[in-house]
Fold each of these.
Amino acid sequence: MGTGASVRETAMRRRAIRAYTAEPVSRAALEVILATAGLAPSAFNLQPWRFVIVERADVKTLLSDAAYRQRQVAAAPALIVVYTDTTDAIARVEEAIHPDLAEDRRESQRASVRREFARKTEEERENWGLRQGYIALGYLLLAAEEQGYQTSPMLGFDEEKIKSAVALPAQVRVAALVAIGRGAEEGRPHHRHPLDRIVKWL
Amino acid sequence: MGTGASVRETAMRRRAIRAYTAEPVSRAALEVILATAGLAPSAFNLQPWRFVIVERADVKTLLSDAAYRQRQVAAAPALIVVYTDTTDAIARVEEAIHPDLAEDRRESQRASVRREFARKTEEERENWGLRQGYIALGYLLLAAEEQGYQTSPMLGFDEEKIKSAVALPAQVRVAALVAIGRGAEEGRPHHRHPLDRIVKWL
């Protein structure tokens, strides 16, 4: 399946791609990509990330409208809505607790989660979980490239329209809309800050 | 240098590690890890992420205090403060614009950035950029594992104490504190939601 390339090589090769061939994204590859994204770490292991894979033309049209008709949305054979549902994650905290933990450690984790969220509003909880959706997004983009698919992650869109297009509950937050398929263009070479612009050593 | 493992294998192998050997993290490996993190995508290519690498004992003590004395902070030979400075990123937008773009496209990108932030407060701008710090964090964790180093990303800490410990400007946001070193424990196997719990197909 994969390309055999390293994480660093995969990150070097990945570029934002806005033109795609008509070839569908294989279900097997999507499952590997999403399972890899799901291996990202999260606070309390709550894994608030959720994914909607969209291939239906009518839904893609709605997503295109929600993403200001950026050309990669209509061009891609599939779209991935990356969202977070922290309310759901907290409600089902038992699913997040590691099965190897003894009951006293389980109760301690439950108590930590209760303490963390006790004084947060629903909006604050959802914004808290939203950030962790982007850790999974980082994993997802690298996993897609490794599976031989190119992507274009979009962070700018009409969030309510996206939620409406894929019938998401009101409280969730949309982290990103990702176009995915076999690239039909080269993309621009990376243009990134040199390390000494973004790193300090203490 | 790297392990030659794939993105998926690296994600499978990576676990939260809280005990480390005394071996320092090599400067060359850190540079590869940070350069890989810097390849993450960001809106308008603004790359708001910044990193402080901490090996000094006195600063580590301050960070330990800021992170509620979680044992991996004192145990790790190095710590990485992952933060975002969106104010700086916006102020120096010229650095983010791709050199291949012609002047009309450059002006269009400047205008998009101005439009995006015109009605945002400083706090809103920084919260906007903070999310993108987590994309880079996902890259960083995989790159570290690939370089043969284990990590423990912490998302819970006293943010003001972290900023004070490493002398960061007031407006920036701390995305994560990452302990890094050669692991001295196995860590717990992954415990993650099955795909059908987190994925919908449309």
Amino acid sequence: MAGTDATKPSLAGGPAIVLVEPQLGENIGTAARAMLNCGLTDLRIVRPREPFPNRYAVAAASGADRILETARVYDGTVEAVADVQRLFATTARPRDMVKPVVTPREAARLLREAEARGERCGILFGRERTGLTNEDTVRAHSIITVPLNPAYSSLNLAQAVLLVGYEWFMAADATPPTELPLGGTRLATVGEMEGFFGQLEVELDRAGFFPTEAMKPAMWRNLRNVFLRAQLTEQEVRTLRGMVSRLAGTRHRGRGDV
Amino acid sequence: MAGTDATKPSLAGGPAIVLVEPQLGENIGTAARAMLNCGLTDLRIVRPREPFPNRYAVAAASGADRILETARVYDGTVEAVADVQRLFATTARPRDMVKPVVTPREAARLLREAEARGERCGILFGRERTGLTNEDTVRAHSIITVPLNPAYSSLNLAQAVLLVGYEWFMAADATPPTELPLGGTRLATVGEMEGFFGQLEVELDRAGFFPTEAMKPAMWRNLRNVFLRAQLTEQEVRTLRGMVSRLAGTRHRGRGDV
């Protein structure tokens, strides 16, 4: 059963992120940061050029140290993913390999589906500049290719991890696309809006804002729409009522003073 | 009309990316790279700490130099976005500001809609670590907040630009979620698959692969499913037919040699 084998990491940390032959410790550190940004915690490193852990990795990982602390180092790609049941390889679209190529978004969907079935997943990332070898790419079930600007698509290691991790995170994220944070207040009711409009209309009439009675209906409709479009809160309606009272009072006082 | 005013950049380069008070030239360079990755070209910089352009920015932009070459520097945020009609601010969820908060994905949808109407858009990115001031955030129509791991959500400048730009790029990208690149070949037809299965069944029968006639139907069904699940190409079917012929031939020869 998934997650009950103590020798294996739990699925909660998401797919294993497997860095194959990373050249610079700094890139391992920034990749670890990108992982933690996305809630990924299972880092595996195959034949790093510099001994790992090293101080460059730790310095670059600032705040994501625990990803490095639990990272495991392997002598070969096969050893690193021996327990993985769904293996993805991130690479440019291969020329002569008949293997499914998916977008990061589709990969995220497949990863979440697989995880829901208790399957262990992993994603291979190749070394800086040269990427994955054909030998490692062939081992994967599917290829992930990020469809960015074809004229300039080079991503560094941490950015590639970030985009794939971001999609994985988003695939289970419940944040509503749009939200209006209301703090301690709430949206105004139609009744409150009508109360404000009643006050405003009286004051505008008194102030002679509407040039003619014939022009008033359209002008008044447009003005109301400005405030309705703003989706006011109850607090803002009170503020506006105060503003109108004060402006009108100033005008009255102003006249009286003359 | 959109795009006909020569004093304004065309909409083709996407929303203006406005870096407010960036502290390090290097971060301007990496942000420029992230922009070009996503097909964004309109870079605007407000009060950079170091004189711009500078060699750190150029070095970090490797390959994205033309973004820096056309970048414009401003003394204030208002000047930088004076022509913008839809302004977004990237920042953490504001505490006491009633302003729509959108995900990068929703922002991308809104940006593409606005661009289709010919509206000029811009996105403010604050300085490293401290982010945007309230004063600048207030100017925006909406807030973009990236919903990442709440326990560790700090992104550097280039990563924030990359995620927002990636969503903008993806919102108009037509890459199919999954693709099976076929090179010069094509998927096998049912007729070709049946031809292969016919050959394989004959050879397996000859070789005594099926222990009993009673067990054969289920075994044979399962074996066929392996090959059907793989969605073979016409070329692969021919390769498999050759493989079966050769294996069978070897076995026959092997017997003859005894």
